[in-house]
TrEMBL record:
Protein name: Replication protein A OB domain-containing protein
Keywords in alphabetical order: DNA-binding
A Pfam family hit: REPA_OB_2
Source lineage: Eukaryota, Viridiplantae, Streptophyta, Embryophyta, Tracheophyta
Ranges annotated as spanning the membrane: none
Top-rank taxon: Eukaryota
GO molecular function: DNA binding
SUPFAM superfamilies, A to Z: Nucleic acid-binding proteins
Domain Replication protein A OB: 7-97
Length: 158
């Protein structure tokens, strides 16, 4: 089980499921900022809200939105962990996000997605919220033999 610590800097590989529209907000300092929220799934089948701030929202956000139907694999580095209605991750100025198609990790995530496509599509159709955003499960991982999301989904209904 992964333990996430507030304000920790983390590196993750995730599948992007949902790209929400870009919007503008004022942060605590009153300055306007641009953001775009993505719903992503990690290897533990946990939907997580990934917030792209400012330059990430305007530069890489549209590229992700253009290919969201292909559930792109994102490799994100130096993201900030936060808690807003559950665990979420967000970019910071030093973050990097790469769209990856050819790495071994990306291929493993893609194979895992293909095995679990029907359940993930249900998650997408429910706007990414059919499983609580703060749910954490070590039960299903792409590197486990025969891992399938329906096992997790059945366990959540109990």
């Amino acid at each position: 089980m992964t333990i996430w610590i507030r304000d920790e800097s983390i590196d993750v590989a995730v599948l992007a499921l949902i790209a929400k529209p870009r919007r503008h907000v004022a942060k605590r300092n009153g300055q306007p900022h641009c953001l775009r929220e993505l719903i992503v799934v990690d290897e533990c089948c946990m939907p997580i809200r990934l917030t792209l701030w400012d330059e990430f929202a305007t530069r890489i956000g549209p590229s992700i939105e253009d290919i969201i139907a292909k559930t792109p694999v994102l490799v994100c580095r130096r993201l900030k962990v936060a808690y807003h209605s559950g665990i979420c991750i967000a970019t910071r100025p030093s973050s990097t996000i790469d769209l990856v198609d050819d790495s071994g990790r990306a291929q493993a995530l893609r194979q895992w997605f293909n095995r679990n496509c029907d359940v993930l599509e249900e998650l997408i159709n429910n706007d990414g919220l059919s499983i609580p955003l703060n749910f954490r499960s070590p039960m299903v991982r792409p590197d486990q033999a025969g891992a399938h999301l329906s096992q997790l989904q059945r366990s959540l209904r109990c």
